[in-house]
Amino acid sequence: xxxxxxxTKPSCGIxxxxxxxxxxxxxxxxxxxxxxxGIGARLHNEWTFVGGSRAIIKPKLRSxxxxxxGPGVYASWWAxxxxxxxxxxxxxxxxxxxxxxxVVAPKAELTKKSMxxxxxxxxxxxxxTYLLYLSWTPDTIRLMFASQYxxxxxxxxxxxxxxELTLASAWIHLLTIDLFAARQIFHDGLENEVxxxxxxxxxxxxxxxxxxxxxxxxxxxxxxxxxKPRVH
Length: 232
Description:
This protein has about 230 residues and is of the alpha+beta class. About 55% of the residues lie in helices and about 20% in strands. Strands 1, 2, 3, 4 and 5 form a five-stranded antiparallel beta sheet that branches. Helix 1 packs parallel to helix 6 (about 165-190) and helix 6 (about 165-190) packs parallel to helix 8 (about 205-225). It is elongated and about 65 Å long.
């Protein structure tokens, strides 16, 4: 319990039984991290001809107002959570049209022009930089290179990703790399006349699998061309 100031309010009555009351009131009091208004006690000094003088302390609690410490911290946490959720949704929605064009209309001029543009990577890069700025703390480097040899450790990375902003930035990072890999596969498929729709689709969520899929597909396509008899 913390108490910043003590106020006294004496009140005495005169009569056959003389009573003197002193109110002890705490101002700006906190009880277990909660704000309490008007907590204190009343000290009754009663004197009678028969019993003499005696003091009685009666606790008094006028009102109890819950008040959490550091409201700015909770507000900041809520704001950061909302930002992380919004950027997560925005980044996911931003890449879907490009995957749709590569899968539905891979040979259309609109798809080719869209995949030659650097705008989606710039937008995703800015979103990633913004989240990285918000999530960066003095402990970030320590968590990334937690071992004594300055190498990443799984426990440190897991602790770092417990922050929603950091997790959202990692998701934007993955979306950017996955889209870039899908574009490379798309362009390589057009150049070598290889089917890429299945590999591009896999890059959306399983980028390494999509790359492996394209390598296998390209190898099989080239083998099929070599074994195909030529018509003279």
